[in-house]
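[Automated response] Your request has been received and processed.

Submitted sequence:
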Amino acid sequence: MRAFLLEYGLFATLLITGSSLLYFLIMALSSQRMRTQIKSTMYSRFRELSGSEHVPPVSILVPSYNEELTIIDNVRSLMALEFPQYEVVVINDGSQDSTLQVLVDEFQLTRIRPSSIRSLVQSKSIEEIYHNPQYPKLVVINKKNGGKADALNAGINAAQYPLVATIDADSMLEKDALIRLVQLYMENPEQHIAIGGNVRIANGSTIQGGRVTKHRLSRKSLPAMQYVEYMRAFLGGRIGWSALNGLLIVSGAFGLFRKDYLIEVGGYEADCPGEDMNIVMKLHRYMLQQGLPYRILFCPDAVCWTQAPDTLSILGSQRKRWIRGNLWNVIHFRAMLFVPKYKIIGWLALPYTILYETLSPFIKLSGLVALLAYVVMNMTQWPILLAFILINLLISLLFTTGSLIIEEIAFKRSTQTADIWKIIGYSMLMTIGYDQMNALWKLHGHADFLRRNNSWGTMVRRSWKEDVTEQPLSPTQLSAGQSSKATVM
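Generated structure:
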């Protein structure tokens, strides 16, 4: 038993050390890439592009299921974007609440005769289309429930423009977010086939006219810790993976795609619980199999604000679903592992995901149990255990500090000093309790996957305007982006 514990402890230590070293390298690459991005932005003329006729039009797809509390603010933010030509296609995926009705009432929509919509990718049929000439950019589609992937496929079929942007119904874009993504696409339209945006946590911030006008860290601990998670993942990780062309996910909360390639790979797979990873993996596989030059990128200054779960039950449901999607995809694309034609995807990105994302709950929890067993069996001393915990706290602090530096230097956002200290504090607290809960949820997600339990789970939405009354917007006010303030806690 002692020999096994020693060998396993060495194995777990090597894995954790390897993961940390690789993450440090990715963060260093992110920092270098961010400096290049800053120089590029200094000479960028993206604001002039917002009124240019040479900018390709975009269809924004908003899959919606039971989103009556958030959908209006979402659509308001999309209707006020700084972008020359686009459409907002809301896909009501058989909601059981009043999602469709609140849209109809807010924008005075009327049912119109469905136009000839081509079946470019497989999806359930569209039952109704709603429109109001006063809001020419807005189209609402009603269809039977088929899941998020099926709703996105229906949106692809209905989209009239060559670029497709996807956004979650509980998210809001900054007004220049879309033009920033499209500007990056325009730098090399033949090769830039997909671009992900930067997703930020809005809980605690001030909302006005469907936009975040003042960002603050939530006073609730769960959303605040998720803010730290997102900051590490998007700024500390995805910038670096993007530089390597090794991104495996374009967040479903906000991303841009060339529609022709979405159609070429058959769209989203309806039975996949992780549709955002699935579509990116399909694009990687197709382009590499065809030997076509391509890039799948991350644009850190195209910001999308989203709500974070603020209860353990909802957060647990979300994380179980995420790991089920991860498992489904790594199994589905396992044939890409260590095959030369799949390049960095097969040799680094996918192996890293399997070892340090898919299997991480087993490694973290079993490693912790082994370490406690060392102490109980007098194989080590309490000071060694405390030193191990302190090293983990230090690593977490370094990751968070690095991401904060990237954020502050790159975006020059006025984060309050008190919030910075809270972020640092939360990053250290997360290593004791929060990370272990995440690992347990992932283990539960593994069990759900083996039981073929693909239920979405209970995802309760919070209104963006808790205890605040907002007056309805007229078309003139909406285009001007006027509204009363609301704060999301």
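Summary generated for your ticket: The longest helix spans residues 2-42. Residues 466-489 have pLDDT under 50 and may be disordered.
If you did not submit this request, please reply to this message.
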